[in-house]
Design goal:
This protein is of the alpha/beta class. It has a single domain, classed as L-arginine/glycine Amidinotransferase, Chain A (5-stranded Propeller). The chain is 28% helix and 22% strand. The chain contains 10 helices and 16 strands. The strands form 5 sheets. A 4-stranded mixed β-sheet has the order 6-7-8-11. Strands 2-1-16 form a 3-stranded mixed β-sheet, sandwiched between helices. A 3-stranded mixed β-sheet has the order 3-4-5, with no helix packed on it. A hairpin with a 5-residue loop joins strand 13 and strand 14. Helix 1 packs across helix 10. The longest helix has 18 residues. The protein is globular and about 45 Å long. It starts with 6 loop residues before the first strand and ends in a 7-residue tail after the last strand.
């Protein structure tokens, strides 16, 4: 499988606010009282980010959310859908009931109009058993090495992983990761990112030390140059970045402006030596939603229709 893709799917929010149903397990959410203007600010940030990605050569399929569905986190589609080169689409079981409404046939139909969708593999029945796996939020894929990095949390159930990964031909590397206060980190993709040649990881979050060294050794064995971030950088969404590609296949590193400015000059130089950086301000989305630039991107590896 190609590690990176030029094509992505993004969902323009229709009713963005800080989701009370996700707050218990998402310590990255910092809700304020100003939900009234959150939607307008989030749309402006969304459109600015889409413009930055397109300017860098990324192909963005932006689909509008439906206001009547009342889905405050629809801006984070990577949690409910993944799209693969063989035409398969996987749908994932979501922890928050109001996030389950994000899965909609009309999004898949819109994707089908331009890309070849074969089998749709729906894992959402696990929700009835209280078992969740929130897509490429819960899992950070290393496609080259057919590996899924997964930090354990209420949103990453091992039984769902066991149902998914053999179908993809991937193995899991499971570990525990905690925030500054010792609480489990809710999604792997806020504390690490794996690209074709670079890996960003908050090693100090991984416990115990033996697990930390296992993750470090695996990334190095697979030839990744490590950008080790600290807790302050993780809290500024430096772990929530993604490597995409432009039309020529060159690397595009997508991140928020907040994350970019939180990287050290030496770390910034590593990114720019390996590709283009596409950044945009996502402060409202990060603060109220507890997710950022990577969470907003659903990678689309599907074959394009002739």
């Amino acid at each position: 499988m190609t590690h990176t893709t030029r094509n992505i799917v993004m969902i323009r929010p229709a009713h963005f606010f800080s989701n009370p149903e996700t707050r218990a397990s998402n310590r990255f959410q910092q809700p304020d009282a100003d939900n009234a203007t959150a939607q307008a600010r989030a749309v402006a940030e969304f459109d600015g980010y889409v413009a930055a990605l397109r300017a860098a050569g990324v192909g963005v399929l932006a689909i509008d959310d439906e206001p009547e569905r009342n889905t405050p986190d629809s801006i984070f589609p990577n949690n409910w859908i993944s799209m693969h080169p063989d035409g398969r689409v996987f749908l994932y079981p979501m922890e928050a009931p109001n996030r389950r409404r994000e899965r909609r046939d009309s999004v898949i139909a819109r994707i089908r109009a331009e890309f070849a969708v074969g089998e749709v593999c729906d894992l959402s029945a696990f929700e009835a058993e209280g078992k969740f796996l929130e897509g490429t939020g819960s899992m950070v894929f290393d496609h080259d090495d057919r590996l899924a990095y997964v930090c354990r949390s209420s949103r990453s159930h091992p039984e769902v992983l066991a149902a998914l990964l053999p179908r993809l031909g991937y193995q899991a590397l499971l570990f525990d990761a905690v925030d500054r206060g010792g609480a489990a980190i809710y999604h792997t993709n806020v504390m690490m990112a794996v690209g074709s040649r670079l890996a960003v990881v908050c090693l100090e979050a991984i416990r115990p030390a033996a697990a930390r060294e296992r993750v470090r050794a695996q990334l190095q064995r697979d030839g990744k140059q490590l950008i080790d971030i600290d807790y302050t950088q993780m809290e500024n969404f430096c772990g929530n970045v993604i490597e995409l590609a432009d039309a020529a296949g060159n690397a595009v590193f997508a991140m928020s402006s907040r994350a970019w400015h939180a990287f050290s000059p030496a770390q910034q130089a590593i990114f720019t030596a390996h590709g283009t950086v596409a950044q945009a301000p996502l402060d409202t989305i990060e603060q109220l939603g507890g997710g950022g630039a990577r969470c907003m991107v659903a990678e689309n590896f599907l074959p394009r229709r002739p």
